[in-house]
Amino acid sequence: MVAEARAAGVPVTRVWAGDRLAWPGIEARVWWPARVIRAGSVPNNASVVLTVDVDGLRLLLLGDVEREAAAELLRALRTEPALLADGFDVVKVAHHGSANRDDELYAATHAPLALVSVGADNDYGHPAPSTVTALRGDGFQVLRTDQSGDIAVLGDHGGLRYVTSR
Q: Which stretches are transmembrane (predicted)?
C-alpha cells in the first residue's frame, strides 16, 4: 500500500497519539496508537484512531481497534471531558463491526450515527449481530456499507444528514 501511494504521489507519514493534522476546513487529532498492545490482534490494536472536525461535523474514526486498545482509547478520551460531553455526530465503527469491541467506548460517544464499513458476504461474518444490536441499544442509527453502499455524511454538529448510493 505504501509503495502504491508513493507511486501515485500521495505522501505517507506515520502518526502517533497526540499528533494533529489540518487541511482547510478539517482538523484531526490522532488518539491512537499511543503504545504497542500485545494482546488481541497486534496490527488491529495498532490501528490509527482519529477525532475529526469537518466544518463543525464531529467524527470519531476507530480504525480496526479491538477491545484492548478501545479501553485504552476511552481512558485517553476521558482526559478531555469536554470532548465526550459535547459528543460526536458520527462514529466509524471499529474493525468492520467485529464482536471484539468495548461497549463502554461506544456509549461514551453520544453519537446518533454509527457507520460500519464492511464488504458484503465477507468471510468473517462482519458486522457481528451482537455489535449491531448493542449499537442500536445505545441509540445509534446504524448504517452499513454492505447494505447502503457509499455513505456521505453532511451537515454540522447537531444538524446531521446523510445520503447513500443505494
A: none
